[in-house]
Amino acid sequence: MLCQVPELPISLARQQEAPEKPDEFGFKLDDVQSLMALNTTNFIYYPNPEFEPLSSSGVLELKPGSPIILKGRNFLPPTNSGNGKLNYTVMIGDKPCMLTVSETQLLCESPNLTGRHKVLARVGGIEFSPGVVHITSDSPLSSTAIIGIAAAGALLIFFIVVVLIAYKRKSRESDLTLKRLQMQMDNLESRVALECKEAFAELQTDIHELTSDLDGAGIPFLDYRTYTMRVLFPGIEEHPVLRDLEVPGYRQEQVEKGLKLFGQLINNKIFLLCFIRTLEAQRGFSMRDRGNVASLIMTVLQSKLEYATDVLKHLLSDLIDRNLESKNHPKLLLR
Hints:
Blueprint: H1 9-14, E1 50-51, E2 59-62, E3 68-73, E4 89-92, E5 95-96, E6 98-101, E7 105-109, E8 115-123, E9 126-135, H2 143-213, H3 224-232, H4 249-266, H5 269-280, H6 287-300, H7 305-325, H8 330-334
């Protein structure tokens, strides 16, 4: 049986806060007279809970998920055993919330709601409404700010699309220009190759005519020294490599020793390859400088042409690899 305890008019009239123990109580059970009045009772009346307003205006502003604290007094009966408790129900709108009860506070875990909702507390058959909670979204931006940000984002996206379209069109024009230049270079190379073939054929004809004019003297060839100097150092008649070392006497021994040691390093393939690659990596190392260094190295290696050929094969292999990695036009390698 679930019975609702009646009020005590005397307690309500006096507004007593001390516990009140009735002299007798009983149950109305149809015609059962023996239970109408029971004098031996353990029933004790305690003062009703009293709730304070949520705020001075009656409206409490909250963020979603924030706890709701209901303040007041007489929330727990002051029993000797310390186990006294009341069954509270707190509704936020039409949704209940989880409660933690203390003597002067009810801690309510607010449900997932937004907007204005009435707070209603029920206990012992009576209801209390301490006010209204206004749960606002935790978004820091107003609708106007959101619309402005959305418009700015759309404008930025439009600008990016326009830039990409312009870049793509410019890239396409650059590609077409590059292809046009490449075709012109190919045509020019083809014409140069054809002219070289024709010139070589004419040269052969001229050589045959020249040899026929020579009375048994044969074709005049340059000696090896003169031919090599013209190939390695064109346009220089008296190169310093043909003359003796011109260094003051007190330094000549040191310079000769240094040149001898450097010559030994030149004969080391690992050093020579590293030396050449380091020079080529310098931005200020021009094509003329490369030709001069190559000519000087070949002059040193005249007596070791097999070793020089092996070094050239390594350098040529590196050049081919670089052209393949950079995906340059194959004819650039031949140039």
